[in-house]
User: Fold this.
Amino acid sequence: MQPWICTTCCVEYPAAAEPPATCPICEDERQYVNPTGQSWTSMAEIAATRGIDWRELAPGLVGIGVTPAIGIGQRMLFAGGVLWDCVPLVDDGVVEHLKVAGGVRAMAISHPHFYAAMVSWSDRLGGVPIYLHEDDRAHVMRPSPQIRHWSGETLEVAPGMTLIRCGGHFPGSAVLHWAQGCGGRGALFTGDTIQVAADPHWVSFLRSYPNMIPLPASKVAAIAATVRPYPFEKLFGGWWERVVEADAKAVVERSADRYIRALAG
Ligand SMILES: [Zn+2]
Ligand SMILES: [Zn+2]
Assistant:
């Protein structure tokens, strides 16, 4: 028996002889069931056709994705001993690379769409804790004693690596602040809690990206206010090309203002 992985969202489910009847992550209004029907795969099947994409993005920062891309196509980030977000493939090579790069002391994930194979990753990394905000507890499809449901608004999971709960997309949607990033000017890892737009001088905020459901002005203002106390020069969204390269703090402020103006009409 092996864990089952939903082919659309790439979230892993417990090992069982048969796959689950449905994927609640995809059935939620923020995601979608594949129009051809719910289908399932496994990590062994993914490994047969795909590999790990390891990229040094900046001093002290690595990106880890799957190539060719699968599911939502996100990539993870590794900095300051913290593995941020998750993908559905892990292999011996990437585990060894992470050891050489300083070792993983904690995993943390922005929101349920990126939970992927988080428990398999933690297992392969020797059982490192996985920090998830407790407000998203109902969306955990493969429970594990390695999962730590954190509560409140912020949590420092490693020195200078602070989880900040922003809410919006999901009640527990979080970002990770890397204080030492960008030569000490700071960087923010946002998944799609704060989504980098096609024009990377802007970001946006939605309840659902694939189904284009907006957020109310109050939630957008709250997200901007939540990250305001933290300095950050760069902002790394959940995908390779989704990066705000400079002045990211001002980008978040002006994007929130534009969004709220648009809602006001
Ligand atoms: Zn799914
Ligand atoms: Zn999402």
Summary: The helical segments are 24-27, 43-49, 92-100, 118-124, 181-184, 217-227, 248-264.
